[in-house]
Amino acid sequence: MNLLLVGVNHKTAPVEMREKLCSLMPEAGEAYRRLQALPGVQEVLCYRTCNRVEVVCVTEDADTAAREIKSFFAEAPELPAHILDNALYFYRDADAVQHLFRVAASLDALVVGEPQILGQVKEAYRQATQNRATGAVLNRLLHKTFSVAKRVRTETGIGDHAVSVSYSAVNLGKKIFGDLAGKTALLVGAGEMAELALEHLKRQGVARFIIANRTLERAVRLARRFQGVPVALEELEEQLAAADILISSTGSDSYLLTAGQVKAAMKRRKQRPLFLIDIAVPRDLDPAINELDNVYLYNIDDLKEVVEHNVERRKEEAVKAERLVAEETLKFMDWLATLAVFPTIISLREKAAGIVQAELKKSLGHLGPLSPEQQQALDLLTQSIANKLLHDPIMYLKNNHHRKRSRQELDLIRRIFNLDPDRVETS
Amino acid sequence: MAVFFSYLALIAYYVASGLFVAFFLAQREGLCRGGAWVMTLGLGFHTLALLAVIWPLGLLAIATFAGALSASAWALVAAFLLLYWRHPIKVLGALAAPLAALILSGSLILPGGPPAVSPALRSFWVYLHVALALLGNASLTLAGLGGIIYLVQERQLKAKKFGFLYRRLPSLEQLDALNYWCLTIGFPLLTGAIVTGSLYAQWTMGRFWNWDPKEIFTLIAWLIYAVLLHERLAAGWRGRRAALLAIYGFVVLIIAFVGANVWLSSYHSFAAFTRQP
Question: Is residue A325 in some structural domain?
Answer without folding.
Answer: no
